[in-house]
């Protein structure tokens, strides 16, 4: 229903005030006896009608999830978009439905190292769940998708009243902490090819496909090396016929072989996530 | 609830009047969920068990809402004790809500 018609149905009074304040979901038409949803309510209802894509939200008891819905706003995540800069006060937390967000630790000379990758299994804004106000990392959208976001103040309130949400986020944060420890050791001790294999396997699992797009820059950030290092390691994996890598398009040809070529960290991290 | 009964209850020192309300919502739409959460918080804090709340989904029962004079959702109708009142919106303005319900802070 067009907005103009909704406005004609509600010309004045407290109803009009509530409508203008964005507090109205539906308008009733006296003439036809029908109820019309406003566009925002329509979007919210159609996005929540199906399955809950985000694992943190999906793990909550139904009524807890529904109590959060009013505060959740659907947003698109565009590749290259920066959700947080390091040191910046967190304004929103994000529960991705799909796509991937890379958390990067930025060092003084503008180098960045990917310290975590967040997709539909997690939430961006963990510092808030642990009592901190600012993000220590840059959150950069790596693969486009969509998410449900919540204002920081609403999120704090939700945490107070919703024990299952607290529990779920603590569990997730703990998993991420153990993963980060594993990757810190991996980055220091394991050869580049094995780490590239580990990294590609983890992304493959997340994307759920043997083919995906990745730039050299993303991989260089993920592994903390220069682009030329990525090229050399990728050539080694290609020669062994484990992957093909052309123009940013990666095809995992032999998953078992790639696991054999990776360090044991892949299996350890995968087991943590499940 | 019959007024006579309420009157006799008022005579007892520990018994309070039951507030009867009807909240009109649209399924799980954002403002409707906010209104439910905001109203539940107020009921818990100020009314404890002395309230009756009926929730009407206008997407299922539009004619019923229209018959009650409701034009938009969420809307809350306070039916008793008198005076009756209707509050429109997601009930996030707590001061206004308490005032309309006649609850002293």
Report on the structure:
The complex is a heterodimer of chains A (274) and B (105). Chain A has 274 residues and is an alpha+beta fold. Chain A has helices at 3-9, 13-20, 39-49, 55-58, 62-69, 126-129, 152-161, 163-189, 192-207, 216-223, 227-239, 255-261, 265-273, and strands at 26-29, 34-37, 73-77, 82-84, 92-96, 100-106, 112-118, 138-143, 145-151, 211-213, 243-246, 249-252. In chain A, 37% of the residues are buried. With 105 residues, chain B is α+β, with helices and mostly antiparallel strands. Chain B has 4 helices and 5 strands; from the N terminus they run αβαβαβββα. The A-B interface holds A 9-10, 14-15, 17-19, 21-28, 30, 33-35, 37, 40-41, 44-45, 48, 66-67, 69-73 and B 25-34, 37, 58-59, 62-63, 65-66, 70-75, 86-90, 92. Strand 1 of chain A pairs antiparallel with strand 3 (72-73) of chain B.
Fraction of helical residues of chain A: 40-55%
β-strand number of chain B: 5
CATH superfamily of chain B: Glutaredoxin
Give the rounded overall mean pLDDT of chain A: 87
Q: What is the number of domains of chain A? A: 3
Describe this protein with a few key phrases.
heterodimer; A: 274 residues; alpha+beta; Jelly Rolls; Arc Repressor Mutant, subunit A; 3 domains; 4-stranded antiparallel beta sheet; 3-stranded antiparallel beta sheet; elongated; B: 105 residues; Glutaredoxin; 4-stranded mixed beta sheet; 5 strands; disordered N terminus
